[in-house]
Design a protein that fits this description.
With about 650 residues, the protein is an alpha+beta fold. The protein has four domains: about 15-185, no CATH class; about 210-510, no CATH class; about 515-570, no CATH class; about 585-655, no CATH class. It is built from 23 helices and 20 strands. Strands 1, 3, 4, 8, 16, 19 and 20 form a seven-stranded antiparallel beta sheet that branches. Strand 19 (about 455-465) and strand 20 form a beta hairpin. Helix 2 (about 40-55) packs parallel to helix 4, helix 6 crosses helix 7 and helix 22 (about 625-640) runs antiparallel to helix 23 (about 645-655). The chain is elongated. The two termini are about 40 Å apart.
């Protein structure tokens, strides 16, 4: 055990060096996670103040005077303002808190300043949840808050010690957890503040965008960033049906495809007609840039907060920067019906007249048949037969992208095949468009859910056929069918930089212990995100309704009973009579005194062991050696720090051998 000094303040009223070391260490731990998302200059400024404080613990003359501290304060505020172009928003506010904490470390004159620093450190710890909400970060913050609370315990102890202070702080936190859990579940929740409109930095997130350029999806294929997770109520759809619909690209300018505007579009002439098996599932979206919700094609039922636009894509009215969970039902077999004139024109748009080589290829593939289905089948066979390759690293095609890809390179990623496929069909006067989204996903056998990552990003084609509506065709399946049937091996693909596919494993027996451990942890994180982080107003309302709480009066009763019950139980535990465990050393000594009393030794309640030994030896000189050994062992156990673990056993043996 590390013993602290007998007081936390020295003769001048300043905090003791041990308290300063303890507090500085805890503040360093509190601020450490911010180093990953704060500007280097800001975190460097704090680090300089923190090191200055450490060096000045033993040399107080090194601390800055009032004017220098004022100059440092102006410099810190100016630095925070310059790094974030303001003082409002998540990043700017966090930066100001961290700068203030570093400056306050240089201004400690008494207990009051220690309190201010610790309370400010608690605020800095809370700001970390604005950046990361994982269970590991929650455990880390809980640990460092325990250390901060131990600082307050040490500050208010008459004879402080480090380990007992940590134990006391941990006990206080454990005692508070039940009440905190009750308040978390029952206390009326407020919507989280929309930091994005205040945050000038607007930190970017990777993912699909409303522009599809050659190679854009190939870049995502090397990212393991999680996009969403899906848990089906029953069986999973087969791999060939796991298409998660996103933006629809209809406008082509010769170099890039643009997503069609979803607003002010003419209504579809028909509503989708669904047939076949429906799949019900819970989809948890991670924070993203756009308000897109990637549902399994084609969503048939969804909550009120979602909207299915005229392009059959789901969008949300919630802040896309927040994690959100939705209950959705999709049917992979559907018929969208007719097409309106504006949509037909849009789906036939080309930046210019197709070249002679393109028209010749179309004529060759179409043959004498006029049916679009025949042309589509021949085109897919063309991709399969003519030595086309699937690669993440195709050669650049800056000019005449479609022709270069079809007639020269013949190697590309899914976006190359989908865009070339759509271009050829439009040139043949067949309405077609490119659809972006994700395909496949890795199944977590422990939690029973699919994980879809950026590496699963995909592009496919959609063709309008008379009597069938919009029908999905995936040219990638003709080139690399294993991409669809087996899915992407994200780890190997990122490690090698080349396309890599692996069979989808549904049996835990085929997984290695490392894979099982990883999936177990991913399941823990999923449950944490789903039941704790995603516990919003809607989820609380549903839970309260299940408990029969339908108004604020009942909610108030539940809060009073729950908090009062836990508080009463804790008060009883703390205030009940302290029944100390009997000291085995004193018990043995009392047994020794009882034997001497039977031997005729007279002694009073105030007699110490040495006095008792002298009287006992005078009455029973034949037992003098045994009496001296018993008293010596008792004094060592009771009063000396040099006692050993076996001394108690020796004491009991000697007393047991004493015959009077």
């Amino acid at each position: 055990m590390l013993a602290s000094p007998s007081a936390v303040l020295n003769v001048n009223g300043q905090p003791s060096p041990r308290l300063l070391w303890f507090m500085s260490g805890s503040i360093g731990l509190i601020t450490l996670p911010h180093a990953w998302h704060m500007p280097p200059l800001l975190i460097g400024f704090f680090g300089l103040m923190w090191l200055w404080r450490l060096l000045a613990i033993s040399r107080s003359a090194w601390l800055p005077n009032r004017w220098r501290l004022f100059a440092l304060t102006l410099a810190g505020i100016g630095l925070a303002y310059s790094q974030h172009r303001g003082v409002f928003g998540r990043d700017a506010g966090t930066g100001l808190f961290v700068v203030a904490l570093g400056l306050k470390l240089l201004e400690i004159h008494g207990k009051r300043d220690v309190y201010v620093i610790v309370y400010l450190a608690f605020l800095v710890a809370a700001t970390q949840f604005l950046y990361e909400e994982s269970i590991l970060m929650a455990l880390y913050i809980l640990l460092v808050c325990t250390v901060l609370l131990a600082t307050l315990v040490t500050q208010n102890s008459v004879s402080p010690q480090t380990v007992p202070a940590l134990k006391t702080a941990a006990t206080l936190i454990v005692q508070a957890l039940p009440i905190a859990a009750v308040l978390f579940v029952l206390f009326p929740r407020l919507e989280a503040p929309r930091w994005s409109w205040l945050d000038a930095d607007n930190q970017a997130k990777s993912g699909l965008s409303d522009t599809l350029e050659p190679g854009s999806i190939a870049e995502l294929s090397l990212s393991a960033e999680l996009v969403f997770r899906v848990k089906f109520d029953a069986d999973l759809p087969p791999p060939a049906q796991r298409y998660w619909r996103g933006p629809v690209y209809t406008l082509f300018d010769g170099s890039a495809w643009k997503a069609a505007p979803a607003l002010f579009r003419a209504a579809n002439p028909d509503q989708p007609v669904f047939g076949g098996k429906a799949y019900a599932y819970t989809l948890m979206m991670e924070p993203q840039k756009q308000n897109w919700v990637f549902a399994l094609e084609l969503p048939s039922a969804f909550p009120a907060g979602l909207r299915r636009n005229e392009l059959y894509q789901l969008t949300t009215n919630k802040n896309p920067g927040d994690r959100a969970e939705y209950r959705i039902s999709s049917v992979p077999s559907y018929n969208t019906g007719g097409i309106n004139p504006a949509e037909r024109r849009e789906s036939l748009q080309l930046p210019g007249k197709p070249s002679e080589r393109i028209r010749s290829l179309i004529a060759q593939l179409r043959g004498t048949a006029a049916s679009p289905e025949v042309l589509i089948a021949n085109l897919l066979q063309h991709f399969h037969r003519e030595n086309f390759r699937y690669t993440l690293n195709p050669e650049p095609m800056p000019e005449r992208q479609v022709e270069t890809f079809l007639f020269e390179r013949r190697a590309g990623f899914c976006s190359h095949y989908a865009t070339a496929f759509v271009y050829l069909l439009r040139a043949a006067e067949i309405p077609a468009r490119v659809v972006g989204g994700y395909q496949g996903g890795r199944f977590n056998t422990v939690g029973g859910f699919l994980e879809i990552r950026q590496a699963d990003a995909h592009a496919w084609a959609e063709v309008w056929l008379d009597g069938k509506g919009w029908v999905r065709f995936d040219p990638t399946a003709a080139i690399a069918p294993e991409r669809i049937e087996q899915g992407v091996n994200v780890d190997l693909q990122i490690a090698s930089g080349a396309a890599n596919f692996s069979p989808i494993q549904l049996d835990t027996k085929t997984l290695t212990w490392l894979q099982r451990s990883r999936q177990l942890w991913q399941n823990v994180d999923y449950q944490w995100q789903r039941w704790v982080i995603n516990y919003d107003t809607d989820n609380q309302k549903a839970l309260l309704q299940n408990l029969g709480i339908d108004d604020f009066v009942k909610l108030g009763y539940w809060l009073l009973l729950s908090v009062g019950g836990f508080s009463g139980l804790l008060a009883w535990r703390l205030l009940r009579p302290n029944r100390r465990r009997r000291d085995p050393v004193l018990q043995a000594y009392r047994q020794f005194c009882g034997k001497l009393s039977k031997a005729g030794v007279d002694f009073g309640p105030g007699d110490g062991p040495q006095t008792l030994a002298q009287r006992a030896k005078a009455v029973r000189p034949d037992l003098a050696d045994t009496i001296e050994r018993i008293v010596a062992v008792f004094i060592r156990l009771r009063y000396e720090p040099s006692a050993e673990a076996g001394d108690l056993r020796v004491l009991k043996t000697l007393i047991g051998s004493l015959r009077v």
